[in-house]
């Protein structure tokens, strides 16, 4: 029943390419990060027309072989503009850190909506291929950590619109200024002794930054691994304890180490965060993944591409020497004042035979019943939905349905007024409901919403109320799916009462 007829599908034969990328437009999402800068340098050396996307870069600057575009990847419109003319898209984005003052979302849901935006935009512009840098996945996938489960989910979302995806799966990337590498370095530098919990006996297979970048370039220039994943890593497998010992050797340190048979992960997260100064939002998912063997299952394609891999000891020495090649400088845009903005992403069930546009109409019809007797929703002309206090007529929120930017798989409503929002002509506040993962999942998201209530009053009232409303609406959708309650027979959004 569910199909993707609105998206083009592509065959491997569509991807025939010359050995060089001369003049071909290649877009790198996440270009300002650790791997992104190395990748941009390698692509520019191949003669590609490289476009780097970043949320805080200076728009339109061309330097060091890269044209930089300011792009909010939570905005589908921004993604479509950023990918304009792209033949190949590299996706290096992992949403571990909040991008607004308040984020009501798990990193999995944020990663999913970002990947869905990229997949939709790639199909819209006619891109021929997406290369995704993900994580190594163990053989036993029955009890994956949240972090690794999210990596697999992103792979599925990127491929859901018909653009062929090549996931390049890597473990810890060794290189100067890499976040995971720096955490390991700081632990060894700052601790004279360590107690090693059970996860330090887990096998791992890291990789030198130059190797993973060369693999990602060569899968395109040599046109291999279309639509299939490939694991990459160093030639040897070692345990995390041995990796710590290699770092100590490279730093000429001799910390005392003692294995212990227990060690709650919550303590590991705390001391790694405290010792290295890294955010717990970044540390926690990484520590959770360390129970799984992070080992490449098959390196045949990596070796066939002429990248046998730098041994770990040599990679450590290179990373610590900091003799990195000339990498593109990232032109930072003007700093914006910190606004009291909110992002909220909630994952809800989507009943079969229904789509996201139906869910938006159902939401508007359900709200007055779900919040009776306090709320009334009035549908006006021009796609306006007015949320009012019942009996008083006070308008709390005013939403405008965007017909031009909506589709059966995504309903978009802009926040255009009401007492509960700061009104600005340039405001980007919006509510969207979209289906993802082949239309089996519904994501309800608020982006760039700026409340008018004083911030701490908002946190203790409206913010909590929104989460409660979305949870109850999710229960309602489950009841619809199991036929325990009928659909509310919603009318078209914006139709007047």
Describe the model.
It is a single chain. With 497 residues, this protein is α/β, with parallel strands linked by helices. Helix content is 33%, strand content 21%. It contains 14 helices and 22 strands. The chain has an eight-stranded mixed β-sheet, sandwiched between helices. It has an eight-stranded mixed β-sheet with strand order 6-16-22-21-20-19-18-17, sandwiched between helices. A two-stranded parallel sheet has the order 9-12. Helix 1 links the parallel strand 1 and strand 2. Helix 8 packs across helix 9. The radius of gyration is 24 Å and the shape is globular.
Distance between the termini: 32 Å
Major beta sheet summary: 8 strands, mixed
Structural category = alpha/beta
Strand order of the largest sheet: 3-4-2-1-5-7-8-13
Shape: globular
Number of strands: 22
Give a short summary of the structure:
With 497 residues, this protein is an alpha/beta fold. The protein has helices spanning 34-45, 76-82, 107-125, 146-158, 179-190, 209-221, 240-250, 265-276, 280-288, 300-304, 312-321, 356-370, 455-460, 462-481; strands spanning 25-29, 49-54, 62-63, 66-70, 88-91, 102-104, 129-135, 165-170, 173-174, 193-196, 203-204, 207-208, 230-231, 238-239, 256-259, 342-349, 375-379, 384-389, 395-401, 410-417, 430-436, 441-449.
């Amino acid at each position: 029943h569910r199909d993707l007829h609105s998206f083009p599908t592509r065959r491997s034969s569509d991807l025939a390419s010359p050995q060089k990328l001369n003049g071909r437009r290649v877009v790198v999402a996440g270009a300002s990060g650790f791997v992104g800068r190395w990748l941009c340098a390698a692509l520019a050396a191949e003669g590609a027309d490289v476009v780097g996307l970043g949320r805080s870069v200076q728009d339109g600057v061309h330097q060091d072989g890269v044209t930089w575009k300011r792009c909010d990847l939570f905005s589908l419109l921004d993604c479509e503009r950023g990918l304009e003319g792209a033949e190949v898209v590299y996706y290096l984005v992992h949403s571990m850190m909040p991008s607004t003052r308040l984020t009501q979302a798990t990193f999995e849901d944020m990663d999913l909506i970002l990947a869905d935006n990229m997949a939709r935009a790639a199909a819209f512009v006619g891109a021929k291929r997406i290369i995704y840098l993900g994580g190594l996945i163990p053989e036993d996938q029955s009890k994956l950590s949240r972090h690794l489960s999210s990596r697999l989910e992103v792979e599925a979302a990127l491929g859901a619109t018909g653009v062929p995806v090549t996931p390049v799966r890597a473990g810890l990337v060794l290189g100067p200024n890499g976040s995971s590498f720096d955490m390991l370095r700081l632990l060894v530098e700052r601790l004279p002794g360590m107690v090693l919990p059970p996860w330090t006996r887990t096998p791992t297979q890291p990789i030198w930054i130059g190797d993973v970048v060369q693999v990602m370039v060569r899968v395109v220039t040599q046109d291999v691994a279309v639509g299939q994943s490939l694991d990459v890593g160093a030639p040897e497998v070692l345990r995390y304890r041995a990796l710590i010992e290699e770092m100590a050797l490279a730093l000429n340190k001799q910390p005392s180490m003692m294995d212990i048979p227990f060690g709650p992960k919550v303590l590991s997260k705390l001391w790694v965060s405290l010792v290295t100064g890294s955010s717990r939002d970044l540390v926690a998912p990484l520590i959770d993944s360390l129970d799984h063997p992070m080992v490449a299952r098959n390196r045949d394609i990596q070796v066939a591409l002429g990248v046998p891999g730098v041994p770990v000891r040599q990679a450590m020495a290179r990373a610590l020497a900091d003799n990195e090649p000339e990498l593109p400088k990232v032109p930072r845009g003007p700093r914006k004042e910190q606004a009291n903005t909110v992002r909220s992403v909630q994952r809800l069930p989507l009943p079969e035979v229904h789509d996201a546009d139906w869910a938006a109409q159902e939401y508007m019809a359900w709200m007055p019943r779900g919040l009776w007797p306090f709320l009334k929703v009035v549908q006006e002309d021009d796609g306006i939905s007015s949320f009012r206090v019942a009996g008083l007529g006070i308008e709390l929120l005013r939403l405008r349905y965007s017909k031009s930017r909506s589709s059966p798989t995504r309903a978009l409503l802009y926040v255009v007024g009401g007492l509960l929002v700061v009104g600005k002509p340039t405001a980007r506040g919006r509510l969207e409901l979209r289906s993802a993962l082949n239309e089996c999942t519904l994501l309800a998201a608020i982006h760039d919403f700026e409340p008018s209530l004083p911030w701490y009053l908002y946190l203790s009232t409206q913010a909590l109320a929104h989460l409660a409303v979305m949870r109850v609406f999710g229960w309602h959708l489950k009841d619809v799916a199991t036929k325990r309650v009928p659909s509310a027979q919603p009318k078209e959004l914006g139709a007047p009462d």
